[in-house]
Amino acid sequence: MTLPGLAAFTRPMSASLERFAQAKLADLDAAALRRRLAVTVRGPGAEAEREGRALVSFSCNDYLGLARDPRVVAAAREAAARYGAGAGGSRLVTGNHPLLPALEARLARHKGKEAALVFGSGYLANLGITPALVGPRDLVLVDALAHSCLWAGARMSAAAVLRFPHNDVAALEALLEQNRTGRERAMILTERVFSMDGDRGSVPEILALAERYDAWTLVDDAHGLGVVEPGERAPLEMGTLSKSLGSYGGYLCASRAVIDLLTSRARSFVYTTGLPPASAAAALEALTILEAEPERAARPLRLAQRFTARLGLPEAESAVVPILVGTAEDALALSAALEARGFLVVAIRPPTVPAGTARLRVAFSAAHGEAEVDALAEAIAALR
Ligand SMILES: *Cc1c(COP(=O)(O)O)cnc(C)c1O
């Protein structure tokens, strides 16, 4: 038997692929839109260490400070010791360890729904939900500022996808009026709290409209759960275990029949490995804490409102406050100036946000102290 020569392992890179990647990177650099990874170690409190520097982070979605809570960490550790590090298979094969149905029952109860389904992440949940419910003969209406994964799910469904101006219920109604007839099923996709703007979706108005046009509303509650009062529930309530619950994973809460249908038909549920037991155990413990400690849950919004009052900004509606800057370059410069003063506030650039609206996205957590919030407000006031 002859072994392949060394050359087989060091085959040259594809020249056209290299040219493509280099040219694309040059474009991104020129537009200040290239993204780079920075190694970050979080905690204790709201601290984050980056490149050897301790910063106070205002860029974490761990709104309730539960990712490092000793009770949550202990639950994860015990689950890993008992059930192992990974699920070992799809949930429909052998990956459905007992913590997952337990977590689903608790999520459903928390949301006042009949049932829930846990996915590998919030992104995977949104990739699976819409295509399992609508198809080529149907209509999907999506808020212009909806998260990338809501759009991805809508497009994967192969339905006609229309964008409605952000939170514009009148425009949504006009689109339904013009496009609903002749379409079998229709969905409306929105968010309870918009991830990059921190404002709240007009959920009650949309639900009323949806009823009139027989459309099914999917509300993404990624930034609402545990932080803002829930308000009216949609028939489809999805979210993530990765933000206020401090863990990892995603979920949908809905009726029993819808959950049973998705269990069979959501491709991002069926064809992927189940959530690791430790992630489910951590989320379950976090949900218990969230329900038991309302003062913790109230804190991020209160701190956000303290911050907006100090800076004379419109009152915060959630734990997320945008500081609009404009160009990507200016947003990066403001972020760097804050980092030099000990604050981690990451710049958000297109295509995450529309062109010309690059910003700092300030996220508040129960782990922040009032003094930290005031210090950030002062630093921003001085730099703007
Ligand atoms: C973060 C986020 C998601 C994705 O959740 P992951 O669990 O992080 O994949 C979905 N929708 C919105 C609005 C989000 O902000």
From TrEMBL:
State the Gene3D superfamilies in the record: Aspartate Aminotransferase, domain 1, Type I PLP-dependent aspartate aminotransferase-like (Major domain)
Q: Which reaction does it catalyse?
A: 6-carboxyhexanoyl-[ACP] + L-alanine + H(+) = (8S)-8-amino-7-oxononanoate + holo-[ACP] + CO2
Q: Please give the superkingdom of this protein's source.
A: Bacteria
Family statement drawn from the similarity comment of this UniProt entry: Belongs to the class-II pyridoxal-phosphate-dependent aminotransferase family. BioF subfamily.
Q: Which InterPro entries match?
A: Aminotrans_II_pyridoxalP_BS (IPR001917), Aminotransferase_I/II_large (IPR004839), AON_synthase_class-II (IPR050087), PyrdxlP-dep_Trfase (IPR015424), PyrdxlP-dep_Trfase_major (IPR015421), PyrdxlP-dep_Trfase_small (IPR015422)
Spell out the subunit comment: Homodimer.
Which PROSITE patterns does its entry note?
AA_TRANSFER_CLASS_2
Give all residue intervals belonging to the Aminotransferase class I/classII large domain: 55-380
Protein name as annotated: 8-amino-7-oxononanoate synthase
- Required cofactor(s): pyridoxal 5'-phosphate
The kind of enzyme this is, by top-level EC class, is transferase
Xref: Pfam families:
Aminotran_1_2
The pathway it acts in is: Cofactor biosynthesis; biotin biosynthesis
Documented EC number(s): 2.3.1.47
Q: Which PANTHER family match?
A: 8-AMINO-7-OXONONANOATE SYNTHASE, CLASS II AMINOTRANSFERASE/8-AMINO-7-OXONONANOATE SYNTHASE
Entry keywords, A to Z:
Biotin biosynthesis, Pyridoxal phosphate, Transferase
